[in-house]
Write a structure and sequence with these properties.
The structure is a single chain. By secondary structure, the protein is of the alpha+beta class. The chain is about 35% helix and about 25% strand. The protein has 2 domains: about 240 residues, 3-Layer(aba) Sandwich (Rossmann fold), CATH 3.40.50; about 60 residues, Alpha-Beta Plaits, CATH 3.30.70.600. Bound molecules: adenosine-5'-triphosphate. The site of adenosine-5'-triphosphate has 12 residues, from helix 3.
C-alpha cells in the first residue's frame, strides 16, 4: 500500500490517492440539487416526506420492510468515450457480504464510486441505503464507510492523529472519546502513538478500517482491502467483517482473491464493464456449466502440452502434481482428455469445478464479446 499525501487545503478540497476525493473530504460539497436546480421555496421544502428513506411499505402485507442496502440499475459510465461501466444492475441485501470481482480495469472501483455519489452516472439510477445516488450523495457519504484501494492517510501522523483528523471531517463529537472507543474497538490502542508510515500492511489496513467504521456507517464499501496483506491479517480482517455483518452491517467488497470470494454471501462478477455473473458461489459455479477433469501422473507436463487446443478443452491448469482440464462440452472434453491420458499413461478422474475456473471462462467470454 502506498500513501499519497492529501493537499492540506481544508476538508472541501481534500484529495487523496489516485482515486481523487477522500470519501469523508467530500462530505460537505453541495448536492447537485442544492448546487444547480432551482429552489422551489420553503413550502415545497416543508412538503418533503419525513419517512425513513431506508424503510418502505411491503406491497402485499402493507407492513414496513427494510429496503435493500444497494439497489442500482443500468449504471453506465464512460471516460473519454470509452464505456467502463456498462448497464450494471446490482442488488445487495441488508447485512449481506457481497463480493465484487473481475479482472483489472473492469470497472469495480468506478461502480463503487458511482454508488457512493463520488461520480455521477451517464445513465442508470438507483438507491443506496434508501438515498438516490444522483441527488443524495451527501446523505450516502454520511452513512457509508468507503475504504479506497490505496492507503490514504498521513504517514507522518500517528494512528490516533489520523483518526482525530477523520473524526473532524465527519464532525464526530466528542472527538477524543470517539477516537478512543474506535482505537479500542479495532485493537489499535496499544499502537495509537505509532506513525502510520511505519505500520505493516496489516496494521495500515486496520487503521483504514477503523477510519471508515468510526462514524458507524450502515454500509461498508471496501475496494481490494486486503491487497498486499499477509494471510493471517487477511483471516483476521475477514473475521472482523463477518462479525460486523452479523450485527447488521452491509458490506460490498472488491477482491481478486478466490478464497475471499468464497467467504462472501453472494458474489457479483464484472468483466469489461458488464456484470456477467451473480449469486452464491455454488450458484455461480453451477450456472457456468463447466466440467472439470483431473489428470495425474509422471507425464502431466507432456499431457498439458498435448491437451492445449484439443476439441472441448478450454482450460488446462497445473495444480501441484495434477492437471485441471476444463471445458463446457462434457462429452468432447472427456473424449480428448481420455485420449491424452491413454497416450501419456496418466490417470483421469472427475474433479470439482473451482470458482477460478469459472472466472477465467467468464473473462475469456467477455473479451470475445468486446472484440
Ligand atoms: N477518472 C478516470 N478517468 C479516465 N479513466 C478512468 C478513470 N477512472 C477509471 N478509469 C478507467 O476505467 C477503467 C475501469 O477502472 P476501474 O478502476 O473502475 O477498474 P477496476 O475493476 O477497479 O480495476 P482494478 O481491479 O485494477 O482496481 C480503467 O480502464 C481505468 O483506467
Amino acid at each position: 500500500m502506498r500513501c499519497l499525501r492529501p493537499r492540506p487545503s481544508g476538508p472541501r478540497q481534500l484529495r487523496f490517492g489516485r482515486a481523487g476525493i477522500h470519501p469523508a473530504g467530500d462530505l460537505f460539497a453541495p448536492e447537485p440539487s442544492e448546487a444547480g436546480l432551482p429552489d422551489r421555496g420553503p413550502a415545497h421544502r416543508r412538503q418533503r416526506p419525513q419517512a425513513r428513506p431506508d424503510r418502505q411499505r411491503h406491497p402485499a402485507r402493507g407492513g414496513i420492510v427494510t429496503a435493500p442496502a444497494i439497489e442500482v440499475r443500468g449504471l453506465t459510465k464512460s471516460f473519454g468515450g470509452r464505456r467502463v461501466v456498462d448497464d450494471v444492475t446490482l442488488n445487495v441485501a441488508r447485512g449481506e457480504i457481497a463480493g465484487f470481482l473481475g479482472p483489472n480495469g473492469s470497472g469495480k472501483t468506478t461502480t463503487i464510486r458511482l454508488m457512493c455519489g463520488l461520480l455521477t452516472p451517464d445513465a442508470g439510477a438507483g438507491r443506496v441505503l434508501g438515498h438516490d445516488i444522483r441527488r443524495e450523495g451527501r446523505a450516502i457519504k454520511r452513512e457509508v464507510g468507503y475504504m479506497t484501494q490505496r492507503f490514504s492517510f498521513y504517514e507522518d501522523l500517528t494512528i490516533e492523529e489520523n483518526l482525530r483528523f477523520v473524526a473532524g471531517l465527519y464532525d464526530l463529537r466528542p472527538a477524543r472519546a470517539v477516537v478512543r472507543d474506535t482505537l479500542a474497538d479495532l485493537g489499535l490502542t496499544s499502537r495509537r502513538d505509532q506513525l502510520a508510515g511505519s505500520l505493516s500492511g496489516g496494521w495500515k489496513q486496520r487503521l483504514a478500517l477503523a477510519a471508515c467504521l468510526m462514524h458507524k456507517p450502515k454500509l461498508l464499501l471496501l475496494d481490494e482491502p486486503t491487497a498486499g496483506v499477509d494471510p493471517k491479517a487477511r483471516r483476521e480482517f475477514w473475521d472482523e467483517i463477518h462479525a460486523r455483518a452479523g450485527d447488521g452491517l452491509t458490506v460490498l467488497v472488491s477482491t481478486h482473491y478466490m478464497d475471499e470470494a468464497e467467504r462472501c454471501h453472494r458474489i457479483n462478477y464484472i468483466a469489461y464493464g458488464r456484470l456477467v455473473a451473480r449469486g452464491s458461489v455454488t450458484e455461480v459455479v453451477r450456472d457456468a456449466g463447466l466440467t472439470t477433469l483431473m489428470m495425474q501422473g509422471a507425464a502431466v507436463h507432456a499431457a498439458a502440452k498435448r491437451l492445449t487446443g484439443m476439441p472441448g478443452v478450454e482450460q488446462v491448469a497445473p495444480f501441484g502434481n495434477t492437471l485441471h482440464v476444463v471445458g463446457s462440452d462434457a462429452a468432447l472434453l472427456q473424449r480428448s482428455a481420455s485420449a491424452v491420458a491413454q497416450e501419456t499413461g496418466c490417470t483421469l478422474s472427475p474433479a470439482e469445478t473451482s470458482l477460478e475456473d469459472v472466472f477465467i471462462r467468464l473473462m475469456s467470454q467477455s473479451q470475445d464479446n468486446m472484440s
